[in-house]
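Page header: ASSEMBLY MODEL / two components / 528 residues total.
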Amino acid sequence: MIQPEERLAAGIARLILDPAQPPARHIAVGAASPVPAAACWLVRLLGHPVRLSLLHRPQGNPFTEGSRELFDLAGQGRIDLFFLGGGQIDGQANLNLLGTGAWPGRTARFPGSFGSAFMYMMVPRTILFREEHSPRVLVPRVDHISAPGVSPPEHFRRGTAQALVTGRCVFRFDAAAARFSLASLHPGETAGSVRAATGFDYDGSDAPVTADPPPEWLALLRGPVCDEMRGTYPAFCARVWGGLAA
Amino acid sequence: MPTDTILARMTPDTLAALVPDGALLALPPDNSLSPGAFARALARRTVRDGGARGLRLLGVPVSGYATDLLIGAGCVAELQTSAVTLGEAGAAPRFSAAVADGTIELLDATCPAIHTMLQAAEKGVPYMPLRGLLGSDVLAHRPDWRVAQNPFSDVPDLVVLLPALSPDIAAFHAVMADAHGNVWVGRRRELATLAHAARRVLVTVERMVPGNMLYDERLAAGVISGTYIDTVAVAQHGAWPIALLDEYPADAGHMQEYARAARTMAGFRAYLDHHVLPAAAA
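Prediction written out in full:
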């Protein structure tokens, strides 16, 4: 029985390893991101020489100048890949981590923008991850923009979203068209079910099923990946892989 | 520079008494030496004596338990931060309620902008530029942040200019201090930038150590010099329920209890009664 989180982590790992993309030598993973963290550990434990900076693990990153060092590195272009999500994500890949309703989120307040307004523009590749795939999350137009999906030429920007991974499917992002297209459907989903659950318009209606993680990937996730993550994400590991929360 | 005699009398409550109404108070997030005991002392002062009102909090660069507690206790008029979160325990309930009710003024920021404003202050320059942010509504709602053409570029290239920011007070919980007022924060060096930029720095520590940490080459790189530190108080387990580096982990059960209780104002008041108000004797 493959857990949904395992499928998502494997799907993200495939995106990280996409040979058509610029290389991911140094990947940073933000706080409260267990599925992206699992994907990164999987890539690393598969033997790929990637440097992982896990921001919420005290000894899990190379930063000795405090948390500003991540942003200094990213400003120089020395972080190749980052992960972002959002309380709302729209069809142009705009991210809203602020809230809904009147500014600054009087209807439903989200935690806040964190470093998204900077990181999204400074890193060459961003993989968007949001497990909930519903019309309230994937909206035609975000209420507020924490970080814009695309930018005009006079706004310095190294890259955009590469893809959006949800609990139902994988979308690819075309920065020139500022549009998502359907890349794969997770088992149990159909073109119609994804279209109905998505508030924004996107290209493509038929897509292959998201591949199962191969057995050796599952073995890594359930063994050494879980071991690496249990200290940082005890509740997540207990839920997905069992055992006691630390 | 504190001496042993003064330190013996210092507690989180005496530090909290040094915070004037309306002060701009900078606090680190839950993964970077958050001063739990100090925050409870401040909340106690407000709830019991009506002191420490109208505080303007600054999250460096985000906010957690201490900020949510102070908002619930009614200490806070304004909050500038890049996010408020209780980590695995979820959303910060008193913060969310205050935004919904419009009872605090919220200045949304983004992490590197807060670091940059503090770095400008520590350098004594009026502003520093930062990339990114263009096209964000965070920038659109900050009339104090400016956009300008990069003067070194011949092509259109806009950068954001951020004003220097000097908090009135910075407070955090360090691992140890010596009699020279030096405090040890390990690799959490953003706290050094914060201490350099703040007008006054109040620190609680787990313990005092003998000698001068700046004479120990292996400790010195993790020290903030007493030059920048105004007052130190010993508060054992002073980060609780937050983790303190490799000294002790977070109390995840207590964080969940807080997150649950603080969903309602009645639950939050019960939390104050159990965990905040009686601790004055400690």
